[in-house]
Design a protein that fits this description.
Structural class: alpha/beta
Number of helices: 18
Number of strands: 10
Strand order of the largest sheet: 3-2-1-4-6-5
Distance between the termini: 97 Å
Mean pLDDT: 79
Amino acid sequence: MKRPKLKKASKRVSCAKRYKIQKKVREHHRKLRKEAKKSGLKKRTKKDIGVPNSAPFKEEVLKEAEQKKQELDELKEKNRLAKQKERAEKRKKEKETASAEEEPKRKKAKKEEKVKAQREARAAVAKEKSTKAFRCSELKKVIEASDVILEVLDARDPMGCRCPQLEEAVLKHEGGKRLLFVLTKIDLVPRDSLEKWLQYLQAECPTFVFKSSTHLQDRTVLEKKRASVNGNVDLSRAGASYGCNSLMQTLTDLASMGDGESMLKIGVVGFPSVGKSSLINTLKGSRVCIAGVPRGLTKCMQEVHLSKKVKMIDSPAIVAAPCNSGVKMALRSLQVEENEKSPLEAVQTLLRECNQREIMLEYNVPNYRNPLEFLTFYAKKRGFLQKGALPNTEQAAVTFLNDWTGAKLNYYSKVPERQSLPQYLTEAMVTELRTGLNLDKMKMANEHIITRIRSPNVASSILFNSKGMTDGLLSFTEVPAETPASVDEERQEEDVTEQTEDTKQIEDPEEVETPDSHMAPTQKSQKKSSRKKTKGKAKPAFVNIDVLASQQNNDDAYDFNTDFI
């Protein structure tokens, strides 16, 4: 009987029942023996006594029995070998099927290893091409191979885009190379500022105004199909191009002045994100060079044939010298892309050179006390959030830098007063650069482009404090061993040291009388000892960078914190 709450029934039985079962079993066995005895069946088999000696033909019978026994043994051995062979074939077939299944995996693994090796090789080549030494060598190749050098300048900060080392190398080259300026992104600068900069630059070198186009034809039918499927049609105001005809006509005239057989090679140089590749793409009418918002996309020189007589040579960006100020390095170098400097530091240096009120109006953010607070407001406004709904200030900083280096933000810089020509440039060189060019025709074309272009207002643009020309490197051996700090950082360090000295003077108990002067001498000695321990530690200085707070006493200043009805 199965007991409750148990998985299996117990095998234990009572003694009476066990004895009864044993008795029944004995009776059953006795019955079976009795029946077997009656039927004549015996349990034990009789032993084979063999062939008796009196039997006739005993030897023949024994030989026959021995022969049958050998035949049985041979048959058993044959069956054993057949089974062994069958098992071997089966194992071989299973092994072949397993190897056939593993062959694709082996081929796939081999192919993956090959692809990985190729990827690593390409990464090594790309890393080598992205080095400063490689870019300097490629730039020197472009200068050596070119007959005319087009220095591309951003119209928002033309002086900051000029490289005196490059201009000096081109003008003093033995081959007698010609230098021309091209002002790009002219639709992001107020018209008055553009005209002043054009007049300023034309006094030193022939200058063209140019605006690149984003509506370009794709090179292949496949790219056209992809563009039509994806619907990537740019309908922004940067669609039309200006200045192509005048620049192309001037280059064609220069090519016709030389030998009819040789082509005119034109090198396009400049700092990152000034529009070198976009200029070539616009003149060609298709996307032949890599161009985009990220800086430093062009890694090596690239030749593009515009016509039978004109050939353009694209070049990587000029390497900015480390001796430049922080603002120049933030806009004209690839420190952020090469992880040598964080984007937050670059944004901090840029905001220091701009008017806080204009930044607030341009980006539609409230009053901020420091760059980090500005990036927090900007990240919330653009929806750059991290896990936990925290503002992603790093992504906001990268976007802010792309606005300043890309073709999006409207800002301008003041034209400096004309003093004299640079040291490497003379009046004779200026006259030589102008020879063979129709200056009147160039001037009329530039004026016509400026009148047709859609320029922003001064009120909607940001005034940027330009720091002058940016020093560049033409060979990597020119990098100085020690890079001096920027002027702004030196000012900050001086302010901090002055404030720390003031705080130390105020905290000196000998000069300022405090209510603790009536304390016990033991307490005074304890305070002096603790002050001696913390004497070597620098105390933090609080700097007020709120521009609007300092302008509250001014009646003409606009108060953003109050609503006027």
